[in-house]
From TrEMBL:
Domain Nitroreductase: 34-202
UniProt-listed CDD domains: iodotyrosine_dehalogenase
GO molecular function list: oxidoreductase activity
Region (Disordered): 1-22
Domain of life, per lineage: Bacteria
Alphabetical list of PANTHER family matching this protein: IODOTYROSINE DEIODINASE 1, NADPH NITROREDUCTASE
One Pfam family hit: Nitroreductase
Protein name: Nitroreductase
Xref: InterPro entries: Nitroreductase, Nitroreductase-like, Nitroreductase/BluB
Keywords on record: Flavoprotein, FMN, Oxidoreductase
Amino acid sequence: MPRTHSHPFVPYSPQRLSDGEGLRRGRELHEHLETRRSVRWFSPEPLPLAAIQTAVRVANTAPSGAHHQPWTFAATRDPALKRQVRAGAEEEERRFYRERSAPQWHDALAPLETNEDKEFLEVAPWLVVAFAQKSTPRPDGGLRKNYYVSESVGIACGLFITALHTMGLATLTHTPSPMAFLTGLFGRPATERPFILFPVGHPADDCEVPDLRRKPLSEALVVVGEA
Ligand code: IYR
């Protein structure tokens, strides 16, 4: 029975793999991603715009609520803008680290040895801010409401991180909360809120990361119900 549609549909038949080949590729991807770490010490060596463009092309393949694609990735390698971002971030982080308003949170962060110094925001060759569009301005001046914005932008950011790692590059999910100043610095409209700030580049030669372990699969996956 042919289906009837009120909107255009096209056939979709992605490559069918054998179970063995599918598993092999999945294991290879896992092995590759297992080596990814968040980096806070970057090399200042420049990185071509093409690297950022490619990673954002990958991010832009993310599924999204009603296919509204509610993200904007704003990128800069402008030293003056990076300095302003660092200054703004450090001002907010100083408050967080000095006021110690959430002792439990500070205890949880201790093994990462993070502090209010955000030098990496100036050292990394690129800063990329993923903005979440709560709504999107229409050409007619109206506003289109977006759905599942955090989920959609979160998935796009995950793909962005995966692309960078695959390209041999490093990043850090610096979460700008509130960091509303980024909207103005990057010239984005008030309908967008900064979601994640990514410094992007190569790790410094003497880069170190905290000695952390990933939780075992038994804690990440539960299989329920009958086989
Ligand atoms: N935003 C602070 C604190 C911070 C919070 C979490 I949760 C981290 O995983 C790491 C840091 C900062 O950037 O230092």
